[in-house]
Amino acid sequence: MYKPDRFDWKIIALLNEDGRMPSAEIARKLGNVSARTVTNRINALTEHGIINIRAVVNPQLVGYGVLADVFVEVEPGRVREVAQQAAEYPESSYVACATGESDVSISLRARSIEELFDFVTEKLGKISGVRRTRTYLLPLKIKDLDTWLPPNVLEDHEVNEDDDLQSS
Predict the structure, then answer these.
(1) Is the separation of the CB atoms in 9 and 149 below 8 Å?
(2) What HEC string does the chain produce?
(3) 8 Å CB contact between 105 and 98
(4) Rg of the chain, C-alpha, whole Å
(5) What is the rounded CA–CA span in Å between residue 155 and residue 160?
(6) Co-location of 76 and 41 in the same domain
(7) Which CATH number fits the domain that encloses residue 51?
(8) 27-42: per-residue pLDDT in tens?
(9) Beta-carbon count within 10 A of 116 CB
(10) pLDDT tens readout for residues 55-65
């Protein structure tokens, strides 16, 4: 199993800022490393499934400015089935099975409050097994998965000064 070291996490942090940043630019920012080494590390990280490099759509800029969380109460034994059906809708940006008061947690994107209402009442609410939905409008998003990194990765993963990064 590939375990990222501090050098890998520095590369990941830079790619998190700009997924199109060339290896040569990353190497320049990190110093004392070749672009080839950076490319090799990026390839290892992607091949092992640690990172994916892809386009992330900004929903606000393409007309989907309404963000909401919907918590769904489901009939016993149908949680996974309901969650899978909810995940099939393109309006769902996040779907997870939950524990506690709600059984399924869904984040939605819509163009308007009316579109959100219609989706929750006419689509989600009509999925067989759904007992109840609670919808919360989210007027301000501070952080999302597209910028997430594990806590303290740059501090917890020391680069050994004797490591030969050029041969990676």
Answers:
(1) yes
(2) CCCCCHHHHHHHHHHHHCCCCCHHHHHHHHCCCCHHHHHHHHHHHHHCCCCCCCCCCCHHHHCCCEEEEEEEEECCCCHHHHHHHHHCCCCEEEEEECCCCCCEEEEEEECCHHHHHHHHHHHHHHCCCEEEEEEEECCCCCCCHHHCCCCCHHHHCCCCCCCCHHHC
(3) yes
(4) 21
(5) 13
(6) no
(7) 1.10.10.10
(8) 999 999 999 999 999 9
(9) 20
(10) 888 899 999 99
Residues with Cβ within 8 Å of 81's Cβ and at least 6 positions away in sequence, in order, are: 129
Contact (Cβ atoms closer than 8 angstroms) between residue 15 and residue 39: no
Asked if 54 and 46 touch (Cβ cutoff 8 Å), the reply is: no
pTM of this prediction exceeds 0.90: no
In terms of Cβ atoms closer than 10 Å to its own Cβ (0-12, 13-18, 19+), residue 40 is middle
* Tokens, residue 53: 């490099």
Flag whether 13 is in a domain.
yes
Reading the block at residue 149, the tokens are 């990194």
Maximum distance among all alpha carbons in the chain? 61
What are 141's two structure tokens? 């998003």
Containing domain of residue 17, as a range?
A: 1-56
